Amino acid sequence: MIRTEAEYKNAQEKLDQEQETLQRQREQLEEMDLSEEEVERALEPMISFRDQLREEIETYEQMRRGDLPDLHDLCSIGRWLIGARIAKGWSLSQLADELDVSVQQVSRDEQNEYEGITTRRAQRILDALGVRFRLEIEEPVLRGEEDREKVAA
């Protein structure tokens, strides 16, 4: 996952390099009189890597525009918090200053996509970023024996 402008620029450069390497490799394989199917099979790992890199770049660009995905479960809150920081246009340093923690701490947390974050800590980050959200429950919550009997009937 791309988390900073520097990583984004590096990824763009890497994508350009990969595209050039892929083209050269394709030409070399075609010179060997391989079938198109054999060429594609040989290039499959490189194509997959390039496509993954392109997807990461597109995801970062979407986050930068503030186009964050809906949060469907709390397991993905870490990636969402990173996206919210990026959408706000803040660096790791700016978030660290706002939270009164070290840049290294924020960097480690984001590297781990806030794995195991507490609700209190998530709320501090949301508050620092000025983000408010609404939780919507789609499934009915069963309360008491009476509701269980209705469902069973």
Provide an overview of this structure.
69% of the residues lie in helices and 0% in strands. It starts with a helix and ends with a helix. It has 153 residues and is mostly helical. Helix 2 (36-64) crosses helix 3 and helix 3 (77-88) runs parallel beside helix 6 (119-129).
**Main sheet: strands, sense, barrel:** none
Strand content: under 5%
In whole angstroms, the N-to-C terminal distance is 48 Å
Order of helices and strands: HHHHHHH
Radius of gyration: 22 Å
Detail the poorly predicted runs: none
* Gross geometry: elongated
The helix-and-strand class reads: mainly alpha
* DSSP helical segment count: 7
- Average pLDDT confidence is 91
**Proportion in helices:** 55-70%
Give the structure's gist in a few sentences:
This protein is mostly helical and 153 residues long. The chain is built from seven helices and no strands.
